[in-house]
């Protein structure tokens, strides 16, 4: 009886690990990059379930050289630019499904926003983004990629 129970638990454990691994295999990743702004590189990555237009996760990473962005090495100006980056993520604070991170290393700064659309409240997200309320309860990969390509992003 104990042997059978141990064997059954082992099979269940293997099945659980296999299922979790398989779930990650079924996600499709689409990445777009924009380097048109001096001193700035923005990378947006969308995750969808295979053969789906519905985005389940989005990551936006901005990498900035503050002095190039501001056109000056003036410390007051670069500090002000960094402060604006930090202020830009404040509306997302405490919003379930959204994580933000802003870091600085000398003249380099990074801002990362990750949105898990399976956990986020779309009305609250739209309010945080200042996008109004709207009726959409999901994000379309096709539409998002189209808009970003028109704005100069490349896959």
Write the layout of secondary structure elements.
Elements: H1 2-25, E1 27-34, E2 40-49, E3 55-65, H2 66-70, H3 75-89, E4 98-105, E5 108-116, H4 122-129, H5 141-150
Antiparallel strand pairs: 1-2, 2-3, 3-5, 4-5
Give me the Rg, rounded: 21 Å
Low-confidence stretches: 1-24
Mean pLDDT: 79
* Total beta strands: 5
Strand percentage lies at 25-35%
Question: Which strand order does the major sheet show?
Answer: 1-2-3-5-4
By DSSP (H or I, 4+ residues per run), the number of helices equals 5
Order of helices and strands: HEEEHHEEHH
Largest sheet: 5 strands, antiparallel
What does this entry look like structurally?
The structure is a single chain. The protein has a 5-stranded antiparallel β-sheet. It has helices at 2-25, 66-70, 75-89, 122-129, 141-150; strands at 27-34, 40-49, 55-65, 98-105, 108-116. The protein has 155 residues and is of the alpha+beta class. The radius of gyration is 21 Å and the shape is globular. The protein is 40% helix and 30% strand. It has 5 helices and 5 strands, in the order H-E-E-E-H-H-E-E-H-H.
Task: Tell me briefly what this model is.
The protein is 40% helix and 30% strand.
Keywords:
155 residues, alpha+beta, 5-stranded antiparallel β-sheet, 5 helices, 5 strands, 40% helix, 30% strand, globular, disordered N terminus
